[in-house]
Specification:
The protein is built from twelve helices and twelve strands. Strand 8 (about 245-250), helix 11 and strand 9 form a beta-alpha-beta unit. The strands form two sheets. A six-stranded parallel β-sheet has the order 2-1-3-4-5-11, sandwiched between helices. It has a six-stranded mixed β-sheet with strand order 7-6-8-9-10-12, sandwiched between helices. The model has no long low-confidence stretch (mean pLDDT about 90). Helix 8 (about 165-180) packs parallel to helix 9 and helix 10 (about 225-240) packs across helix 11. It is α/β, with parallel strands linked by helices and about 325 residues long. The chain has three domains: about 5-50, 434 Repressor (Amino-terminal Domain) (Orthogonal Bundle); about 65-165 and about 300-325, Response regulator (Rossmann fold); about 165-295, 3-Layer(aba) Sandwich (Rossmann fold).
């Protein structure tokens, strides 16, 4: 069976080979090909069962039509959600996504970035890990198109798409105060990551603005290497204070899940004994007897904007785009009315 080429499609439609090439390479709009001709060419390509030679195409165009994606931990709901969103958006632009998980390890993160570059991806979408600034600076120096997502380093000017973590944490804390709570604990990881530090800042600002005097015992820093044990100690600490905390705000879904497990173990009722709010959502929340009030991140929008920004970098070398998105507070039944 004869392999169908651009010439066959051009003859079928009655246009030039160049015009066919523009349309099939996704350059119809840039080259001002009419919508009518573009549709005819795409229809003919499908009718004639045209299959492009991707290797030859990438060598000629210096593109592989692949995007590299590195997430922090594929087990997180955020990671799976953002990966799906990026894959769906990339597919619309005829891009394939190659991805890996750093497992929050800076060496693994660097290795994955290097592997993806060696696979000649056209650009990278990255969820950076703690202490990965040198890797980010290397990418800038090498002029490799990349976009940071979810996390960024304020001292490095990069293209990034992230949540307004300060605003989200402020909104959630203010909601708890509105529900009548005035002894609110906040559990966060002990970290240098900017996005998590912004959650601390939002929590503290909301307390201050509502004239609640913060007590140091309320802010509990959890070591990720001993998450379960640290959370148990932290919950014991805030529940056994002279004036026990009446609400706990978890900075991530993983912290919330571990916290709920321990509250179950000690038979503390939610929300009768203590109200619970989580920064992120988790499918595990659906199994809990009291639907958890949580902040929902706009994963689809985040993925779409990350892909759009990266393709602008790849195709037009557009730079300096920092996008801040808002979360949505989903009211469950885990906070006292």
């Amino acid at each position: 069976m004869k392999k169908v080429g651009l010439k066959d499609i051009a003859e079928h439609v009655g246009v030039s080979i160049a015009l066919v090439s523009y349309v099939l390479n996704g350059q119809a709009e840039i080259k001002q090909v009419s919508k009518e001709n573009a549709q005819k060419i795409k229809a003919a390509a499908e009718l004639l069962n045209y299959r492009p030679n991707q290797i030859a195409k990438s060598l000629k165009m210096h593109k592989t039509h692949t995007i590299g994606l590195v997430v922090a931990d594929i087990n997180y709901r955020f990671s799976t959600g953002i990966t799906r969103a990026i894959e769906a958006e990339a597919k619309k632009a005829n891009y394939t996504v190659l991805f890996g998980s750093s497992n929050e390890n800076e060496n693994t993160f660097a290795e994955l970035v290097n592997v993806l570059i060696n696979r000649q991806v056209d650009g990278l979408i990255l969820v950076p890990v703690e202490n990965s600034q040198d890797q980010i600076k290397m990418l800038q120096k090498a002029e490799i198109p990349f976009v940071l997502i979810d996390r960024n380093f304020p001292e490095i000017t990069t293209n990034h798409i992230a949540l307004d973590n300060y605003k989200a944490a402020y909104t959630a804390t203010a909601y708890l105060i509105k529900q009548g709570h005035n002894r609110i604990a906040f559990f966060n990881y002990a970290t240098t990551m900017f996005h998590l530090q912004e959650r601390d800042r939002g929590y503290l600002a909301a307390l201050k603005d509502h004239d609640i005097v913060f007590k140091s015992d309320w802010l509990q820093q959890i070591n990720s290497a001993n998450r379960a044990g640290d959370i148990q100690q932290a919950l014991d600490s805030i529940l056994n204070l002279k004036e026990p905390c009446d609400a706990v705000f978890f900075a991530t879904d993983t912290l919330a899940i571990n916290g709920l497990k321990y509250l179950n173990k000690i038979k503390a009722k939610v929300p009768q004994d203590i109200s619970v709010l989580s920064f992120d959502e988790s499918e595990a929340f659906e199994l809990f007897y009291s639907p958890i009030t949580h902040l929902r991140q706009p994963l689809e929008e985040m993925g779409q904007k990350a892909v759009d920004t990266l393709l602008e970098l790849i195709n037009y070398n557009k730079i300096s785009k920092q996008i801040s998105l808002s979360s949505e507070l989903i009211i469950g039944q885990s906070c006292k009315e």
